[in-house]
Amino acid sequence: MAEKKLVISDFDMTLTRFAYQGKRVPTTHSCLFIFAVLLQMKELLNRYYPIEIDANLSPEEKLPYMVEWWTKVHELLIQQRIRKDMLAHAVRESSAMLREGYRVFFDCLAEQRVPLLIFSAGVGDVLEEVIRQNDVFHPNVHIISNYMDFDHVEDRKESYMNSFDIVLVKDETMDVPNIGYQSEKQS
Fold first, then answer.
1. Domain extent for 168
2. 151-159 long-range contacts, Cβ below 8 Å, gap at least 24?
3. What is the pLDDT of residues 79-111, one digit of tens each?
4. Nearest of 37, 49, 30, 147 to residue 97 by alpha carbon
5. Is residue 160 part of a domain?
């Protein structure tokens, strides 16, 4: 019996670059900075990002700050009434980019029919658009992330569909990856 493979990855600063030519590359949330909330979101980033990367704080100490940050950012996004059709433009106007060698990585996994599960605490709609605009959104790519919820007239609803922050969830059971793996195995 052949061994079945599976690749699990984060997105922001894992599949995407951290910096390019000395400038930070935007995260999925930062891609939305082209909207009116630019200054407010940058202020939140400047306040909370140092807490997120502070090695002297335990995850338990960081948790309330990360929830507070996540909540405030999402409230700002809701206020902008972002429509689904605006996301492609936001990604095109951003300097978001995948890491060097991304095409070989994505294409090789697709060719070998190896499922790629991308877990992200970012904005899933933006993440998908980055991958789509780079022409590597293959059928083997599965994304578990925070998605915007749009209503009939394409206005942002005041919630995220399946909202959860992957970074804050520590689940060592591998239930979600196994579900993705099993569905890929059956196809």
1. 154-186
2. 154/83, 154/84, 154/85, 155/81, 155/83, 156/77, 156/78, 156/80, 156/81, 156/82, 156/83, 158/78
3. 777 777 888 888 998 899 999 999 999 999 999
4. 30
5. yes
Contact between residue 183 and residue 162 where contact means Cβ atoms under 8 Å apart: no
Amino acid in position 136? V
Q: Is residue 175 part of a domain?
A: yes
CB 114 within 8 A of CB 5: yes
What pLDDT, in 10s, does the model give residues 153-164?
344 444 444 444
Closest CA to 134 of 184, 84, 88: 88
Report how many domains make up the chain.
1
Active site members: 10, 12
